[in-house]
Specification:
single chain; alpha+beta; OB fold (Dihydrolipoamide Acetyltransferase, E2P); five-stranded mixed barrel; five-stranded mixed β-barrel; 12 helices; 41% strand; disordered C terminus
């Protein structure tokens, strides 16, 4: 073997694992055969199969990231046989699944090959990647992911990592598997669903404390628990739905009511937690993977393409293009309207989606009126252009949920309004910054009431 190539293959092996098994060696030799310089070929292989690896903690994991290194302790480990579908030529394989944890959180994992460790052991994984499975992140260990057992580690012991973490609602996220928390019940509803052909009653609602709110689902009865009650939850599982964590109460979860003596020592009451959320900075929205039921305010600096009248599939409600749905093929679409805009408050910006109900309110036109505009104009973008003229630059407050995806942070609005009182304060502040309240002999005291401004 060429002396220049051998060291490069060793580097690739250390970074990417078994080159023969993964086909990387053949790819490398193919580049060499085409007279690609060895160093350039190595960098090309690393970019394609690996790239620059980052060392992450469990709390750093999010959807669709890849090629990172992580060290954790195995909390749970199992295996199951995967049988191929009838007629397939593949042989039965084994899938290893479990829970991996470090001092920042825990995460489900899956591996198609046996791991060099058992429950309680610490392993190091290179070239790992994250996928979404059943609405939560899952650490995937592939054929190109070298795994090694670490004998000495600074990670907390198994007993400590296995214990449920006591957390405030704002701190619960995708890296949590089991949590303890104290919160009050803001909303409560019941519904029946079919589980394996049998009817089952599910309780859902919203929890709140002094830090924020989160949805919850209970698969068991909650006797004595009602709206306004403050409860202690121990051993609840965290599930992800559309990028948002949800507290899942199972048969193994302990639920108890907080009495008056203990509730008096808490930093919140039902009355304080039930107040409408005060607008926060968009910078804070962008710093978190998700936030539930929060408010932000800023200027609409851009109306994005895809706003206006759209057509949806009658079966799955996906947006269709030229009468074709990605899942159901040729369909007769149903008209709908939405607005996708960029909201900026000076600390950051975020993409906000307004569904039809809100789009009609802030646009000032119903879907039917927008259809008339579209059909009366020769341009198919008539509604979009009208939205841009009408909305760009307007100051708006919105309330809803934010979540992070591979495309960044998105905010789905559930309510929107013009914050008149805030607008009045902003105008007074602008006058002050312009020096209009500092003229000699003139009283420029400002009175703000009812959203209006009166300069005396």
């Amino acid at each position: 073997m060429d002396e220049k190539i051998a060291p490069l293959l060793e580097e690739l092996t250390r970074a990417l694992g078994d080159l023969e098994k993964t086909g990387i060696r053949a790819e490398f030799e193919k580049l060499i055969a085409f007279r690609v310089p060895p160093d350039v070929a190595k960098e090309s292989i690393l970019r394609k199969f690996g790239g620059k690896r980052k060392i992450l903690k469990v709390k750093d994991l999010s959807a669709n990231i890849k090629n990172f290194e992580l060290t954790g302790r195995i909390l749970d480990l199992g295996e199951k046989s995967i049988r191929p579908q009838a007629g397939a030529q593949e042989k039965p394989s084994r899938l290893y699944t479990g829970v991996l944890a470090d001092e920042t959180g825990s995460v489900l994992f899956s591996s198609w090959r046996e791991l060099p460790g058992s429950i309680g052991d610490v392993i190091n994984i290179k070239n790992a990647y994250v996928r979404i499975w059943q609405n939560r992140i899952r650490l995937s260990i592939g054929e190109q992911s070298p795994v090694s057992k670490i004998s000495d580690s600074s990670l907390p012991p198994l007993s400590e990592l296995s214990a449920s973490k006591k957390k405030k609602l704002i701190d619960i996220g995708a890296a949590d598997f089991s949590v303890d928390t104290v919160a009050c019940v803001l909303k409560l509803s019941y519904r029946e669903i079919l589980v394996k052909g049998r009817k089952s009653r599910v309780i859902s609602g919203v929890l709140a404390d002094e830090t924020g709110r989160l949805p919850f689902t209970a698969w068991i009865e909650l006797p004595g628990i009602d709206i306004g009650g403050i409860i202690r939850i121990e051993g609840a599982q965290v599930r992800m739905f559309r990028g948002m964590p949800s507290v899942n109460i199972l048969s193994s979860t302990k639920i108890s009511s907080i009495g008056p003596d203990e509730s008096g020592k808490l930093a919140f009451t039902f009355e304080s937690a039930a107040k409408d959320p005060v607008p926060i900075k968009i910078q804070e929205i962008n710093s978190r993977d998700s936030m539930f039921d929060v408010s932000i305010a800023g200027n609409l600096v851009s109306v994005r393409p895809g706003s206006g009248i759209i057509s949806r599939c009658p079966e799955c409600s996906r947006v269709i293009q030229k009468g074709n749905c990605r899942v159901h093929g040729k369909v007769e679409g149903i008209w709908d309207m939405r607005i996708k805009a960029i909201l900026d408050d000076g600390t950051g910006s975020v993409s906000v989606m307004f569904p039809r109900e809100l789009a009609e309110i802030i646009y000032g036109k119903t879907l039917e009126e927008a259809e008339q505009l579209m059909f009366s104009d020769v341009s198919k973008d008539a509604v979009y252009e009208d939205l841009r003229r009408f909305l760009t630059g307007r100051y708006l407050a919105v309330r809803g949920n934010s979540s992070r995806s591979e495309f960044g942070i998105s905010f789905v609005a559930e309510n929107a309004w013009v914050p008149e009182e805030d607008l009045a304060v902003r105008v007074v502040d602008l006058l002050r910054r312009l020096g209009l309240d500092e003229e000699d002999g003139q009283d420029k005291s400002s009175q703000v009431s009812g959203g209006g401004i009166e300069l005396a």
